[in-house]
Amino acid sequence: MAEPSPMEELVGFLTSPRHEIRNIACGTLVGYSTGPQNSIFKPPGLKPIKDLKILVRDHPTTSESAATILVNVSDDKAVLDLLANDDSFLELLFSLITNPSYPGADSIAMLLANMAKHESIPEKILKLKRGKPKAEWKVSDSENAMDQLMDLFVKGSGKTLNKNANFDYLAYLFADIAGHPDGRKHFTNAQAYDNVIPLTKMIVFTEHESLVRRKGVASTIKNSLFDIASHPTLVSESSVNLLPYILLPLMGSEEYPEDESLSMPAEVQLLPPDKKRETDNSIIATHLDSIVLLTTTREIRDLLRELQVYPIVREVHLAVEDDDVRDICERIVNVLKRDEADPSKLDGPRVQELDDDDDGVIDLA
């Protein structure tokens, strides 16, 4: 039998009875958890993964290192299966992410986002009940884990709930959950504990300074829009009023003729001369795909025409040098400018769901 390598020996120290040794071993191994070298955590039987799951319960410093390693190795299907099929582990992650003094809450958010790639996790999270948070950690008035996560995401932006966490990566988790029919229903229907449609809470972040938050929110909006029946409520000014929050990231400092601008949503009129368009083309493409989905019904197509969405898309096509963006722009224009009386031109939208930011599983390299 071959002698274990120094790294394999270090992995063995994850089960040391002495905390200080477990902590040093776990912290050192974080640097070996990305790329091909992370095979040291994945021998037959996955014992190191099982040990790391236990260490997530350890001292906060050790716990954070263990969670970080699990983030980086959870792109492996066998590892993902092991994590996703352990309901007690999912419960543990929720207890940690809702702890205001836990330093690794953002690592837990990333791990949950990666675990949501497993087909069972979105449904489990939607059904999970955690009980109301303790009085000293008043996050949410709901017992549902999903509601608590949403309130963490909204109230915790800018590290206002946990000085070590901004919860931005929960947006990627939400995007995956919105990729499932029950998840779409959750985001597009008012929740019992506050009578608010969850997308209403998220759309205010479409121009947030965090790229991660903007990407995840854009993908959540897009995936939610596959629930066609919700479109009238989502675009209604008296309800979610979604459209301005999709359009604003698409708009720069260009000026529009008065006959166009006066018909646009009030929120996108009279923008400042230093208004900047979204800088990430993948996010622009996602918002444009959301518009494509909104063209599914004649009712909303007519509304988009009335609100002068076409000129905004026209300017995006002129300003953004990206083939994918321009292709989607052309599809929108073809739909909005077509003759509704010609049934041969009434083909449906061609849009694929996004599972998060289209960049795959998160790692901390």
From TrEMBL:
UniProt family annotation: Belongs to the HGH1 family.
Superkingdom, taxonomy of origin: Eukaryota
Segments forming domain Protein HGH1 N-terminal: 97-284
Sequence ranges of Basic and acidic residues compositional bias: 342-353
Coiled coil: none
Domain (Protein HGH1 C-terminal) ranges: 290-342
Acidic residues compositional bias, start-end: 354-365
Disordered: annotated segments: 342-365
A Pfam family per the record: DUF383
Name of the featured protein: Protein HGH1 homolog
Organism field: Orbilia javanica
